[in-house]
Amino acid sequence: MARSGRLLLERLYDLRGRIARWHCSALLLTNSKDIRYLTNFSGDDSWALILRRPGRSHILSDSRFEEEIGRCAPQAVAHIRKGALAEELKKVTRHLRVRRLALQSDYLTVAQRRKIAGVLGARHLVDVEDGLIQQRAVKTAAEIALIRKALRIQEQAYESTLAWLKPGQTESQIAAYLEYQMRMLGADGPSFPTIVAADANASLPHAVPGPRKLRRGGSLLIDWGARYRGYCSDLTRVIALGRMPPRIGEIYRIVLEAQLAGIAAIAPGRDLVEVDAAARGVIKKAGLGRRFGHGLGHGIGLDIHEQPTLSPKSKGVLEPGQVVTVEPGIYLPGVGGVRIEDDVLVTSTGHQVLSRLPKDLDSVVLQVRA
Of 3.40.50.2300, 3.40.1180.10, 3.40.50.720, 3.90.230.10, which CATH number belongs to 138-366? Predict the structure, then answer.
């Protein structure tokens, strides 16, 4: 059996143990990322059925994806519907003698659940916390390799973009060029809509690129990521043309110190809140704690935001195999903002920073092109 097939069997084995504990016959997957994780199929408007008993997975889809299922998920049985998904589900569950069906309650709309209850009967349905968020949080070596590849693509695209930058280019143009470069290097696409924010716009943590132009002596925040074979990467850098604005330079030093403190705190068994506190404490000490309003980081994988979460309210500890972002920031309305972000692997003995781009203050001040 191919390595990928064995990996899917291992994932399904863990899930089937939980299905048995729920006293259910099967679990209906409606979250597309979980369907990909357990079957390798990534088409939309599709569901998957995982039976408690060992055997093939079942994918409910339509004719657009019939060939794709055969290519990407040959180990699964394809059920190509001609009507609504709920009606196809009724046919498949009757054929497979599914008596009690577990549902991913976090990913079903009220309307979808009502339709399923209408065709199967509400008494046959059980809403569950399926445990896949926790299962997906710990990455295999193969998954980590895909995240590394996504990082190498996004880093190379970023370096090409820096070589192309010059005053007068707009945030939108820079974002488009960076995403184009990632595509040219083999990315599926960006992990999320690229953030490019010039000068005062960088005080918005999730700024949307617009017509504001890059200028000499100005700063630019770029938050971007590549998706490769489904897996995400996520980095943020702040650069300046010619010279760093003095106030931005001041907060850059604080954010960099905070980020390094957060990274240094990462180790297996470490409380999530402790990692957040290690970085947040640096910013608080500088008197700017209220200008850092978001969590320190999050897990990445098939989704750009996965478990674990590094924040003041997080519960739990880090585990080997988790990949998290570390991204403290300081945001000053009317002035600008700084966020520095890297992707970090939790190892059995500590941590490894997977990203390679420089971030010392000297390295992020670029020479001005004509």
Answer: 3.90.230.10
End-to-end alpha-carbon separation of the chain, Å? 57
User: Measuring CA to CA, how many Å separate 174 from each of 210, 216, 222, 264?
Assistant: 10, 15, 9, 32
- The partner residues of 226 in beta bridges, in order of sequence, read 190
Q: How confident is the model at residue 1, as a pLDDT?
A: 42
CATH H-level superfamily of 3-134: Creatinase/prolidase N-terminal domain (3.40.350.10)
Going by pLDDT thresholds of 50, 70 and 90, the confidence category of residue 3 is: low
For residue 298, give every residue at least 6 positions away whose Cβ sits within 8 Å of its Cβ, in sequence order, or none: 305, 306, 308, 309, 310, 324, 325
- Which element (helix H / strand E) includes 151? helix 141-164
Return the SS3 of 191: coil
pLDDT tens per residue, range 298-335:
999 999 999 999 999 999 999 999 999 999 999 999 99
What is the percent of the chain where pLDDT is above 90? Answer: 97
